[in-house]
Amino acid sequence: MTKIVILTGAGISAESGMGTFRDEGGLWAQMRIEDVATPEGFARDPALVHDFYNKRRAAAARALPNAAHEALARLQREWPGEVVIVTQNVDALHEKGGATGVIHMHGELARALCALCGNRWDAPEVMVVGERCPQCGGPTARPDVVWFGEMPYRMDEIYTHLAEATVFASIGTSGQVYPAAAFVMEAAEAGAHTVELNLEPSAVVSDFAETRFGKATEVVPAWVEDMLRR
């Protein structure tokens, strides 16, 4: 049975108002990555980091899924084989759009992590410095997101899916962040047909067998429709 593995990046959520690293005037443009997306930045100024992620968490809670998210959920429902969605995004828009079993390799804004014992729980709307872990009581709560220099989550599981994929699709990714940028080669080496769906060519576009460019809300539903007609 044909298995589809899909990797999504910031580009699929951009039309829902979730900014990418490269958006001018967005939250990321106002901050240095070193200050808000590294363990060292959190150690230096946890209040700054919490404020940054509190704003992102609030924006994600307000955001609504778009036609691209909904199309992938439809593919999961109607495809006769397995459809696995792996996302680099920390929002919950795939789930809001109806997708299930989404692998959040970079964590989730709506979750908190204890830096001391590794416990995870649903984050409050506003996290503060010194927030205590409900399991160990340590004042070491942080956003449950993967920062630069940290290992993405569930990598063994992801590589297993890539090795089993018949089709691999990358949607809205820059191709500049590893290990995700290498997923296309992993899937291709396992024999998968590879396709990039993006606003513009990624840094690894030459690694794909097929490409489709345009707005996610247009190219993703069209691709899903083509897949379901097969």
Automatic annotation (TrEMBL):
Checking Gene3D superfamilies in the record gives: SIR2/SIRT2 'Small Domain, TPP-binding domain
Identify the residues that bind Zn(2+): C114, C117, C133, C136
- Please give the superkingdom of this protein's source: Bacteria
The record's comment on cofactor binding reads: Binds 1 zinc ion per subunit.
One matching Pfam family is: SIR2
Cofactor(s), names only, from the UniProt record: Zn(2+)
Which positions bind NAD(+)? Q88, N89, V90, D91, G172, T173, S174, N198, L199, E200, A216
- Tell me what reaction this enzyme catalyses: N(6)-succinyl-L-lysyl-[protein] + NAD(+) + H2O = 2''-O-succinyl-ADP-D-ribose + nicotinamide + L-lysyl-[protein]; N(6)-acetyl-L-lysyl-[protein] + NAD(+) + H2O = 2''-O-acetyl-ADP-D-ribose + nicotinamide + L-lysyl-[protein]
Where in this chain does the record put each Deacetylase sirtuin-type domain?
Answer: 1-230
Tell me the residue numbers annotated for binding substrate: Y53, R56
Which family is this protein grouped under? Belongs to the sirtuin family. Class III subfamily.
Record's domain comment?
2 residues (Tyr-53 and Arg-56) present in a large hydrophobic pocket are probably involved in substrate specificity. They are important for desuccinylation activity, but dispensable for deacetylation activity.
Q: What this chain does, per the record?
A: NAD-dependent lysine deacetylase and desuccinylase that specifically removes acetyl and succinyl groups on target proteins. Modulates the activities of several proteins which are inactive in their acylated form.
What's the protein name?
NAD-dependent protein deacylase
Q: Give the source species.
A: Seohaeicola zhoushanensis
Taxonomy of origin reads: Bacteria, Pseudomonadati, Pseudomonadota, Alphaproteobacteria, Rhodobacterales
Q: Which gene encodes it?
A: cobB
